[in-house]
Write a structure and sequence with these properties.
By secondary structure, the protein is an all-alpha fold. The chain has one domain. The protein has 10 helices and no strands. It is globular and about 60 Å long. 35% of the residues are buried.
Length: 256
């Protein structure tokens, strides 16, 4: 466990050196400027608009960071030949993969905390700070969704070059984000047999609708049948399966 922690710690430090803090600064400027501009141009509840923008931006930036930092986690060290001395120590390949994943998770936790502070300040400026704690379940499910993207990014990073890994990870995210609505739309316009086949496919494809509760909380609809417990189990299931595949494939990989 200590070896996994050490890999996670140094992975986190490496990611911080990759100008992540500049991305967070950009996020701060982006959310403030965009939020203020949209509230001035839009008729409606300013707090709802700010909340929607804030939570949506947290999700987008978390996903972008996960993909474009995660896809090079392993391949970068392979190309620089820095992985060989690490694995020459009493560090198993499984511990290395788990440490890389944990380091990315630590980075995302810090990033989400920083962005939540910015979000809270913006709510306070517009007099809606009282809603902030009510949005924490949405922030939690964004974190769960991001954890699945990180796991897939780590898997792709063990298999192929960063460009291809980015395409694969982005495809995973897009499928997860659209599968529920796409399957629903197609099943309504086909025969019952085809609809049943497509519905079955929905249970195989990643489905991020289990994590999408932010709109319900922002507009006061509650969870409406959505379960945070099930979302947690679903994310854990994906992460365990994907990381297990990563470890198996990485153990069988020849490192030159």
């Amino acid at each position: 466990m200590s070896r996994i922690f050490n890999v996670a710690y140094y992975t986190f430090l490496e990611m911080v050196r990759n100008k992540v803090l500049y991305i967070l600064l950009f996020f701060a400027m982006f959310i403030f400027v965009l939020g203020i501009a949209i509230t001035q141009m839009t008729i409606g509840d300013e707090i709802n608009i700010i909340s929607d923008i804030g939570l949506g931006t947290i999700e987008i930036f978390s996903t972008v960071l996960s993909i474009f930092l995660g896809i090079s986690l392993v391949q970068k060290e392979l190309s620089l030949k820095t992985l060989h001395p690490l694995l020459a120590r009493p560090l198993s390949r499984a511990e290395y993969i788990l440490g890389k994943f944990a380091g990315m998770m630590l980075l995302i936790i810090v990033e989400i905390v920083v962005m939540c502070i910015i979000f809270a300040i913006l709510l306070f400026v517009y007099g809606g700070f009282g809603r902030f704690m009510g949005y924490m379940p949405a922030v939690y499910t964004i974190f769960l969704q991001t954890s699945t993207v990180i796991a897939v990014a780590v898997l792709c990073s063990t298999l192929t070059e960063p460009a291809v890994a980015a395409m694969l990870t982005i495809s995973f995210y897009l499928i997860g984000a659209t599968s529920y609505n796409l399957v629903y739309a197609i099943s309504k316009r086909t025969s019952e047999t085809v609809a049943n086949m497509i519905t079955t496919l929905r249970y195989i494809l990643p489905d991020f609708s289990h994590f999408n509760i932010k709109d319900n909380l922002v507009y006061g609809r509650g969870l409406e049948g959505l379960s945070i417990g099930f979302a947690s189990f679903y994310a854990l299931f994906i992460v365990v399966i994907v990381l297990s595949i990563s470890v198996i494939l990485f153990n069988s990989k020849e490192i030159n």
